[in-house]
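Researcher: Batch entry, complex prediction.
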Amino acid sequence: MSVADRITGLAIIVLGVAYWRAASALPKPLLQQAVGPEVFPHLIAGALVVLGTVLAIGPLLRRAAGWPARPTEAELEGPPDVAAILAVLAGLALYTFLYERVGFILSTVLFMAGEIAVLEVDRRRWPWALPVVLLLPVALYLLFVTLLGVTLPAGILG
Amino acid sequence: MTDFFANLVTGFGIAVTPMNLVYAFIGCLVGTLIGVLPGIGSVTTVALLIPITFGMNPTSGLILMAGVYYGAMYGGSTTSILANIPGESSAVVTTLDGHPMAKQGRAGAALATAAIGSFVAGTIATAGLMFLAPSLASVAIRFGPAEYFSLMLLGLTAVSALGGRSVVKSLISMCLGLLLGTVGLDMGGFPRFNFGVVELYEGVDFIIPAIGLFAFGEALDQAAVVRRKQMTHFEFKGRAWLTREEFRKSTAPWLRGSVLGFLVGVLPGAGATIASFFSYALERRMSRHPEEFGKGAIEGVAGPEAANNASVGGAMVPLLTLGIPGSGTTAILLGAFMMFGLQPGPLLFQKNPDVIWALIASMYIGNVMLLVLNLPLIRLFVKLIDVRPAVLVAAVLVLSTVGVYATNGRTFDLWLALGFGVLGYLARRADFPPAPLILALVLERSMEDNFRRATTLSDGSLTIFVSRPISAAILVLCVLSLFSPYLQSWFLSRRSARGEPAIGRS
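Model: Structure tokens for the complex:
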């Protein structure tokens, strides 16, 4: 994964530099302070640049020192099911879009049904999931809104 | 000493009110129920359930969350034993002997030794917390801002050094958390780093990245494998109970694990995982039949299970007395304290002793409740392991959105959490641990606050952190902690060279 590490390391360096500049641009407070609001961010920015550099050149150092490369979590797990992940993300985006517009209960029923349809390969299981899909959203709504006094959008049912 | 018992009596007085007993019960039950779901660790459980406490008073809310924490720790060991699925790294050791025991039809004994061990350990650790915390608080109250800043830095570096596979990546995660913490209003009340986004004006609520990185991240992680995962069905018959012989064999490991776990839990950065690994190594060394370990030795379940539960009590010591969490889970608990307007630290012992003592009393009660719940209800919990992963992923995502939305009641936070979820998933794949980020985010405000106060005292000079002896000593520990993984791997490689089987870091 040395390529991924090198790219991540560079991205961290860029982030550190951008953050440093954003901190330098902070308006100075009117009252004279020994340490302004930019000093602590500057320390973080400096640390990010140093760490990003170490991450980017780390694999080279490691090879030079003759240490074996350790497999990352990703290499141990093998390739992910990208289609499933994208489906979950698309589902979440749609869910978020509908959350306030149609309300918690309806959007949640829709979201759960969609997710289970995509992720459950064994179609014989679909009918068994139906009670969960229909009851969980209602139960959560009643629990949080009625019992615990937490806000959830009622939407078109409200 | 009379003060001490007066405090404890007051604490029990608050904790034993019917409402608080109900909250402790709900916390333990729901914590166990969610913790038992395969692949869901205690951090995720605690993060997911924080919204339940939004409408409560601080004491009840914290009592409930402490119950959740305990329940989640115990729930994790159930899946380790029965399904060989550790929900988090601290439960990995339990699979080594717990799962072989289950395969030999001794699941009941493994579950019982875990449950009773957790009870023994929780009780001992709570007693340890009760005796150690007030005296540590009275020392800590003399610390100045420089010492506090260094202590927090030590908390962060220790977690970074011990919690991940790569120190550099952990530290990057930590710095990103600090960076995120600076977004919002600075000490003087000036807005910073919000890039003109109104919703970021007051900063990022810790709960959003916590749920995003842990819960969304974990759900995405599971979604990535769910369609090709083989479901392993298993049955659990009989009762969770111990024979006289098994009880006798478990007693010493419970006690040793409890003491070890508590002490390790108090140390910054160490925690449940390291406590359980230490305890396993200790039990194997003490055993007259070390060859049985890995093949279903009950001591290999009893010790580590006690140790990881005792570390919860241990971790409460720095959390309550110094305001420094030692793990992702305690970081979220710290966030919960702050949400209720309480700042853990020595002052909390003076200003809100009722909260602290009620929490301690409820930890005793929670332990009893868990024991009473877990042994008879084990069959119900076992059913939950069979939940279809697709349903589980969908339900976790829904619960996550509830927690995120309920924080401020706006969908902006849901988009933000979604972003953190993607980041969390990618970070997990690339071995960046999320815990240091959350820890740093929760600590940033008081860290910067102490930094600015210390440097104001020294007229802007940074040397104050090394010229004050206690602060300097703590900074030396920070540096040492960063090198500790390298020392550790050197130590392990020497051991394996001597022919002893190494137990790997997880």
